[in-house]
Amino acid sequence: MAAPVNTFKAALKHGNIQIGCWAGFGDAYATEITATAGFDWLLIDGEHAPNDLRSISAQVQVISASASHPIIRLPEGGDAPIKQALDIGAQTLLIPMVESADQARAHARSMRYPPEGVRGSGAALARATLFSQITEYVETANDQVCLLVQLESRAGLAALDEILTLDGIDGVFIGPSDLAVDMGYPGNTEAPEVQAAIKDALTRIAASGKAAGCLAVDDAAAKRYLDWGAQFLAVGIDVLMLANAARAKMAHWKKATT
């Protein structure tokens, strides 16, 4: 039995738009609720959300039972965290703060078994193989893993052209928030200079044949990023959805009772 087909990776290869949502609660029950919405993918955030390997593993399980594809954003790259994320059954990883082709190349090698990479071969006891039920996992997993690298600084954008030439990189995600901070516009992703940088990056990524990705919680910005070439796009963050809905509800009733 071979490794499962990575449907998200296949969709990117076919040029299909993939609409996703951030899962930031650090809780499988909340993520399971979001998974009922039918997003193409859900991003389990291990960088800024209160997640650890066990909470991420639980969320991978509940998402896998839905129509959505689980993507894990790790706090950072490296052989050990990438290996653990893949062993719990994830096939697609987003690695933040990539600023050079050497970093991207190292992440690609961490994703794959030798000779293409350096991933340790211990998945026989892991969820990735359904606990040794997928007997040909090691021989076939390299073709099904999907690496998305996140560029969110001027240094990252300067390295973009070289990164786009690398094998083993399936998509490049532009992080608007950190990019705005790095460019001197903290909290203002709509600054003209920041938007120009995002447009240039998304356009170049899309033209390269790799998948371009971005995040926008504002629908107008999301539409703009699609027009600029984004193929996998996060259009919401579950934490903000709840916060905004709760605040709007209370504002309505405060006004109605005063």
Q: Provide the low-confidence segments as ranges.
A: none
From N to C, what is the helix and strand string?
Answer: HEHEHEHEHHEHHEHHEHEH
Domain tally = 1
End-to-end separation: 65 Å
The geometry reads as globular
CATH-derived architecture: Alpha-Beta Barrel
Number of helices: 12
The first-level CATH class name: Alpha Beta
Question: pLDDT average, as an integer?
Answer: 97
Strand content: 15-25%
Strand order of the largest sheet: 1-2-3-4-5-6-7-8
Helix content: 40-55%
Sheet with the most strands, sense and barrel status: 8 strands, parallel, barrel
- The H-level CATH homologous superfamily, spelled out, is Phosphoenolpyruvate-binding domains
Structural class: alpha/beta
Q: At the third CATH level, what is the topology name?
A: TIM Barrel
Can you walk through the features of this model?
- The protein has 258 residues and is α/β, with parallel strands linked by helices.
- The chain has a single domain (7-256), classed as Phosphoenolpyruvate-binding domains (TIM Barrel).
- The protein has twelve helices and eight strands.
- It has helices at 7-13, 28-35, 53-64, 79-87, 101-110, 137-140, 154-158, 160-163, 176-182, 192-208, 219-227, 238-256, and strands spanning 18-23, 41-45, 69-73, 92-95, 146-151, 171-174, 211-215, 232-237.
- The protein has an eight-stranded parallel beta barrel with strand order 1-2-3-4-5-6-7-8, surrounded by eight helices.
- Strand 1, helix 2 (28-35) and strand 2 (41-45) form a beta-alpha-beta unit.
- It is globular, with a radius of gyration of 19 Å.
